[in-house]
Amino acid sequence: MNIGMVCFPTYGGSGVVATELGKALAKKGHKVHFMSYSQPFRLNLFDENLFYHEFNVNDYPLFEYQPYESVLASKIVDVAIFEQLDVLHVHYAIPHASVAYTAQQILKSKKISLPYVTTLHGTDITLVGRDPAFEPVIRFSLNHSNAITSVSESLKMDTLKTFKIDNKITVIPNFINIKEYEMPQEHCVKRKYAPNDEKILVHISNFRKVKRIEDVVYVFEKVKNKMPAKLILVGDGPEKAQIDQLCRQLNLQADVINLGKIADPKEILSMADLFILPSETESFGLSALEAMAMKVPVISTNSGGLPEVNVNGKTGYLSDVGNVEDMANNAIKLLKDNKLFEQFRQNAFAQAKKFDLVNILPQYEKLYQQLVSSPVTVA
Q1: Same-domain check for residues 203 and 58
Q2: Is residue 379 part of a domain?
Q3: How far apart are CA 49 and CA 26, in angstroms?
Q4: Cα–Cα distance between 288 and 358 in angstroms, integer?
Q5: What is the CATH number of the domain that holds 153?
Q6: Residue 60: which pLDDT band, with cuts at 50, 70 and 90?
């Protein structure tokens, strides 16, 4: 099968999932054609059956904002025709669902059928999508998608509530390749960051306000008051400077390690004791799943799809958004009880295996096959 894949190439979860999905499909023998304005950061073009089609949005004096959607639609049409795509999969509704619809209509005029799948990842619905300016376009393009998937049941319900669409939404959760996470803890590396055997707390995100990274710092402060500990922050974004300032205000800068963006966080997670994710909203929580795959218990909020990943009292603990006291108490309880901590580590790994690629990939393949078997009418 020839599959077109459209995603944002940056460090966000949607780009990671799209890239890993494409790589897995390629290993199964499908030809996967990525289309983006730059190469997705996890995409290795040396792998067989993977192709990358870059498009450039030129800077014209006439335009204050560059016509990204028009250029991408043209690229999809071009790739669909010359690579004979069977199906198109677009990740993140804004603006990719409407771009896919535009490309589909252009191809119809050429008597070419190209069904498309729209995968909803979270902030395209729960944050950006709630801007009234986007509502008519999102509703229309979702209703005209040949299939819609969401990464959690919570996101599905949010979409139906926000946009009241008529189209069916299929839940296909995010995934990891569990074999890639079966590695020993890096004790040598851990000593580099925690030379006196301090407990290591880790947070990974794109440092946006919705991630509530200040709560990570406050949780860490309370944990550190009870035991020697270090905090490792992975990522970058608009809240970075504010968090640095907060650490200085709380006199924590000597124990907070900022590593910036890291394409593959497995080595960092391998030495973590706890993963902290206090987000205001998470449609799924891919970073939490990656931590659990490394046998790291998760302290998180109970927002959005997180309860579908992190099982309260088993793989970690869930707290209300902003309840730093509860999150800190849960973290301290786990770190002080070796027997309980070890049980949570094993539980986290067992839960992560449910989201293994071998369980999720066939769901996408089945969906693609259904669409190819019922092609779009081109008359």
Answers
A1: no
A2: no
A3: 5
A4: 19
A5: 3.40.50.2000
A6: low
